[in-house]
Specification:
The termini are far apart. This protein is an alpha/beta fold. Helix 2 links the parallel strand 1 and strand 2. The chain has 3 helices and 3 strands. The chain is flat and about 40 Å long. It has one domain: Response regulator (Rossmann fold), CATH 3.40.50.2300.
């Protein structure tokens, strides 16, 4: 339990970009991620993900801490 609390303390400071083309999965997983991360941005495909990534970096002068994408193969 101590390890879980420690992990949550760490993840609550992270920003995430989540890219997923299945809208049902995108919505449900985003809601789950919001419990664990400071901020979760989403994109519906790779092009939108890249646009959001670049815009975030330009606006904040830093990148997201983590980018999570689905398998495109």
């Amino acid at each position: 339990m101590k390890m879980v609390k420690s992990m949550l303390e760490y993840t609550k400071a992270l920003t995430v970009l989540y890219v997923e083309d299945d809208m049902t999965l995108l919505d449900s997983t985003t809601e789950l991620f919001k419990n664990y991360f400071k901020m979760v941005d989403t994109a519906a495909d790779g092009n939108e993900g890249l646009e959001r990534y670049l815009a975030y970096k330009k606006e904040h002068d830093v990148s997201y801490d983590m980018v999570i994408t689905d398998d495109t193969a």
